[in-house]
């Protein structure tokens, strides 16, 4: 006799339960990844299209460049950009000045 014919009704229910549980885990994992990606893209778009063009960012950028004497902290060349050493998670615009540094275009590209 083969093993399938020896399975009881309870065995089939257990197998079905395990299969459904695995399916739910896979779907929920995919959904979390999908929604996280959408939120990340939304935050990134806001950051690029709104925050970096705001007066608050322009003031903060000026303060950082002036603090570093308009010099790249990595190579000493003229700094034209400000690099975030860290990001404030979920709170764009609340980063402290100490998390920012003046950099030239070339060093900024290397940092990313």
Automatic annotation (TrEMBL):
Keywords: Membrane, Transmembrane, Transmembrane helix
Transmembrane regions: 12-31
Full protein name: HNH endonuclease
Organism: Winogradskyella ouciana
Lineage of the species this protein comes from: Bacteria, Pseudomonadati, Bacteroidota, Flavobacteriia, Flavobacteriales
């Amino acid at each position: 006799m083969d093993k399938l014919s020896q399975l009881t009704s309870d065995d089939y229910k257990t197998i079905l339960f395990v299969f459904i549980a695995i399916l739910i885990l896979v779907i929920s994992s995919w959904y979390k990844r999908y929604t996280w990606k959408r939120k990340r893209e939304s935050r990134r778009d806001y950051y690029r299209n709104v925050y970096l063009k705001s007066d608050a960012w322009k003031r903060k950028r000026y303060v950082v460049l002036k603090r570093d004497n308009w010099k790249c902290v990595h190579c000493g060349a003229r700094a034209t950009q400000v690099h975030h050493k860290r990001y404030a998670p979920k709170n764009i615009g609340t980063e402290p000045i100490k998390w920012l540094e003046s950099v030239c275009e070339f060093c900024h590209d290397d940092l990313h």
